[in-house]
């Protein structure tokens, strides 16, 4: 490819010295071809001209004959291009950072470069075939000239021999001059053909070298394209693997969130059940406390009524008002001796007398005098005899109930082993209960404490 301008400094453009070899020229060409290719500089309007200049420089300096002609003119070219040879092509524009677009751009460039190299390969192959054909034609022509020269030489040798001297036809002077001219023309033609053959051989070798270089570059481009395709396949595989990992991570996150939601709902349901159980227990405790309070209030009212009843039986003189059942000496009245109605139970009287110091009306004893106190003591002792002897079967049946109702339950309760039913709250105790020594009432621990406090 001939240069467009004979004034370009190809050595300076390629960045090599004038004595550089073909390897240095090839290496510089590859480097600058990647740098100045039009596909890599889409925004540079001078990219095509610079790449064409690079092609012209490579074609001229790589061809020995063209380089020799160029070297003869290099001194004048260097002087003429000294003023404007400092112009450098702009750096290539940066490509997109997007991997897909970058891959497509690189593949498109490689395809264009491969296609361009194949076109150049076809051109060089055509030139090589033409040079070989011309070389064959020149060889045939040179062979014919050589055969003609050999034939003339042989005829001349035959005429100069003894046989030709006696038997050959004598040549005239004109025939000798014509034969001499043919020999000179043949020698000149052979010289021209030999020089042409040498030139064609050099041309064939140069074209073959260029063709081999183009084929090698095509293989390199194809290998590079294959490498890019493998890289793209690996990148796509990495993208798919990353997407798969992301989906798996999202799936694990969804499962973890579902487990957390289920655990949260389970805890909420458990807390709700616990709250309801606690609320039910609270309601039960309130109801139980209300029941106990009502029972204690009823017991208190009953005891207050009993206390008022027994306190009302004493007259103002400190005597027991028996309703006419007992006479003044403490003996039962004949008319009322058979009727127990109106008489208090013995145990109730005994416990009532024992609890007398705690009652309010008994606090007035210092003002009543020692005689009344002594009389009450005698009346208490006297009450044992008559009641012991006058208790009937009906009164004995009412004794336990009266004893329990009048018992203050303040003594030490004995522990009773086994299963028992509380006579107060009707609850069943499984291991043990408590028994009052005064009234033999069986109660649980809670009711025992309540009864001992007098509620």
From TrEMBL:
Coiled-coil positions are 100-134
Q: State the superkingdom.
A: Eukaryota
Q: Does the keyword Coiled coil apply?
A: yes
Could you list this entry's UniProt keywords, alphabetically sorted: Coiled coil
Question: For bias kind Acidic residues, which ranges apply?
Answer: 324-347
Gene3D superfamilies reported for this sequence: DnaJ domain
The biased composition feature labelled Low complexity covers 378-391
Positions of the UniProt region annotated as Disordered? 79-99, 251-280, 319-349, 361-403
Annotated J domain residues: 9-74
| Protein's name in the database | Predicted protein
Q: Which organism is it from?
A: Hypocrea jecorina (strain QM6a)
């Amino acid at each position: 490819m001939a240069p467009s301008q004979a004034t370009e400094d190809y050595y300076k453009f390629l960045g090599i010295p004038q004595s550089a070899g073909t390897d240095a020229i090839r290496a510089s060409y590859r480097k600058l071809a990647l740098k100045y290719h039009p596909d890599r500089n889409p925004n540079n309007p001078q990219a095509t001209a610079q790449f064409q200049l690079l092609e012209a420089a490579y074609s001229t300096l790589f061809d020995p004959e063209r380089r020799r002609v160029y070297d003869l003119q290099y001194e004048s070219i260097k002087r003429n291009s000294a003023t404007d040879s400092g112009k450098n092509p702009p750096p290539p524009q940066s490509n997109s950072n997007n991997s897909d677009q970058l891959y497509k751009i690189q593949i498109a460039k490689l395809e264009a470069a491969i296609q361009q190299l194949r076109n150049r390969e076809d051109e060089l192959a055509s030139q090589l075939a033409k040079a070989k054909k011309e070389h064959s034609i020149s060889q045939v022509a040179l062979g014919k000239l050589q055969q003609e020269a050999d034939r003339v030489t042989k005829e001349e040798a035959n005429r100069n021999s003894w046989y030709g001297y006696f038997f050959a036809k004598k040549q005239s002077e004109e025939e000798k001059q014509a034969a001499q001219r043919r020999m000179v023309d043949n020698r000149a033609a052979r010289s021209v053909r030999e020089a042409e053959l040498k030139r064609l051989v050099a041309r064939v070798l140069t074209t073959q070298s260029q063709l081999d270089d183009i084929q090698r570059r095509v293989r390199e481009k194809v290998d590079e394209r294959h490498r890019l395709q493998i890289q793209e396949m690996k990148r796509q595989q990495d993208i798919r693997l990353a997407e798969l990992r992301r989906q798996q991570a999202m799936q694990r996150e969804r499962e973890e969130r579902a487990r957390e939601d289920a655990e949260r709902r389970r805890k909420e349901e458990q807390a709700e059940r616990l709250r309801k159980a606690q609320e039910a227990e609270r309601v039960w405790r309130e109801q139980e406390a209300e029941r106990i309070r009502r029972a204690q209030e009823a017991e208190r009212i009953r005891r207050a009524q009993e206390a008022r009843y027994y306190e009302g039986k004493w007259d103002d003189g400190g005597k027991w008002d028996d309703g006419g059942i007992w006479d003044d000496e403490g003996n039962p009245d004949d008319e009322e001796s058979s009727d127990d109605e109106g008489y208090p139970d013995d145990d109730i009287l005994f416990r009532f007398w024992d609890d007398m110091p705690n009652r309010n009306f008994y606090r007035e004893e210092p003002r009543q005098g020692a005689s009344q106190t002594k009389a009450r003591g005698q009346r208490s002792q006297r009450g044992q005899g008559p009641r012991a002897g006058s208790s009937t079967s009906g009164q004995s049946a009412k004794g336990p109930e009266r004893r329990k109702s009048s018992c203050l339950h303040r003594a030490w309760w004995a522990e009773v082993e086994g299963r028992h039913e509380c006579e107060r709250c009707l609850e069943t105790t499984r291991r043990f209960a408590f028994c009052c020594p005064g009234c033999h009432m069986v109660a649980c621990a809670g009711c025992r404490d309540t009864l001992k406090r007098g509620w």
